[in-house]
Amino acid sequence: MSVERPVRVAVVYYSATGTVFALAKAAATAAEKAGAEVRLRRVRELAPEEAIASNQGWAENAAATQHVVEASLDDLEWADVILFGAPTRFGLPAAQLKQFIDTAGGLWARGKLVDKVVSSFTSTATAHGGQESTILAINNTFYHWGAIIVPPGYADPVQFQMGNPYGTSHVSNNGEVGPGEVELVAIGFQTTRAVEVAAALKAGRYALETS
Questions:
Q1: Where on the phi/psi map is residue 104: left (φ > 0), alpha (ψ -120 to 50), or beta?
Q2: Containing domain of residue 136, as a range?
Q3: What Rg do the C-alpha atoms of the chain give, in angstroms?
């Protein structure tokens, strides 16, 4: 393993009306600025076409994000850092993201997800709509993987404005309000922190291997 290889970051998300997509794009941009190789990936939509068509915001976002490559298990194996983002559904991550996670059993069984640096983010329609429980539910996956969870904590001043140490979260007012400056700065910080931790781990492993 070469310590000179950039950290690899996979930002894997599900977004119905575009709020989580906006956070995911900001995360990908922050990772690139931190010197990482980045894959921005959307998970497969499971909802029927008639349900999507019945909501203008949902339909518009589906059309606008067709260019984003669909997530695959190769993205998880490739990455040093994995960020999962999903809106909440009854205090849990949306089924679309959970379905993708459920396909990773083979990688898990072969130990391919151990020591990945991981973090998560979310959006809710209303305040107190399950932001923390959604992030904690996503993180339950990481415990089983043996991954290394890197939360934003209150490790940057923006976190005292954003207010969620578990991961970046946003109140979308039923999809009508996109992330503001505070949320975008917060997801940038969260991502950069994860990249920095992964780089330090990689450098440490390289030092051990070459000592």
A1: alpha
A2: 8-210
A3: 17
176: in domain: yes
Whether 73 has a pLDDT exceeding 90, the answer reads yes
Sequence-separated (6 or more) residues with CB below 8 Å from residue 201: 115, 117, 148
Tally the domains of the chain.
Answer: 1
Once rounded to an integer, what is the mean pLDDT over residues 35-62? 93
CB 142 within 8 A of CB 108: no
Task: Give the CATH number of the domain where residue 21 resides.
Answer: 3.40.50.360
pLDDT above 70: residue 198:
yes
Closest by Cα among 179, 56, 196 to 124: 179
Tens digit of each residue's pLDDT (9 = 90 or more) over 5-43: 899 999 999 999 999 999 999 999 999 999 999 999 999
Rounded to whole angstroms, the Cα distance separating 100 from 160 reads 32
In a domain, 2, yes or no: no
Buried b (16+ CB within 10 A) or exposed e, 140-149: ebbeebebbb
Tokens 């119905």 identify what position? Answer: 16
CA quadruple 37, 18, 92, 84: dihedral, nearest 10: 0
Of 56, 65, 130, the closest CA to residue 93 belongs to 130
Is 1 inside any structural domain? no
